[in-house]
Amino acid sequence: MNKSLILPASVSLLFFSCTSDKSSQHTDDTITNNTDTACYMWVSDRDTVEMKLNMSDDDVNGELNYKWYEKDKNLGSFTGKMNGDTLVGDYTFQSEGMQSVREIVFLRKAEQLLQGTGEMTEQGGKVIFKDKSKLSFSKDIVLDKTDCH
User: Fold this and answer.
1) Which of 24, 49, 70, 146 has the most C-beta neighbours closer than 10 Å?
2) How many of the other CB atoms lie within 10 Å of CB of 12?
3) Mean per-residue pLDDT for 75-93?
4) Contacting residues for 149 by C-beta, under 8 A, at least 6 apart
């Protein structure tokens, strides 16, 4: 009689432990996955800029692609920090068969990112802005927030 009770008890215990593991895994995923994703796009005639950002607190990383009509595409990644309404980081990209890194800055205005322009120089194998305080955030390249695909 005791042996007949052991098997159902063991099955119940096994079932309970499996469901407990799944719920704790779900909790762990929720805790460690505090990343928001946002996508932006700019289109002018036949030129396109697409950006997909993963944001965790002030840290930002993702993809950034410049597709210029009748020119080489610049396809790459972005890693940076959000400081108030300003996003500053490094854009690592492939163009003309070479990998390059350049500093890039965006100003966030509501649902848009305005790309900063200014005088640049090379330093340590990376192209950077000479003086970020003199950047211009014109309407030349304004990325609008869009749905991520």
Assistant:
1) 49
2) 10
3) 96
4) 39
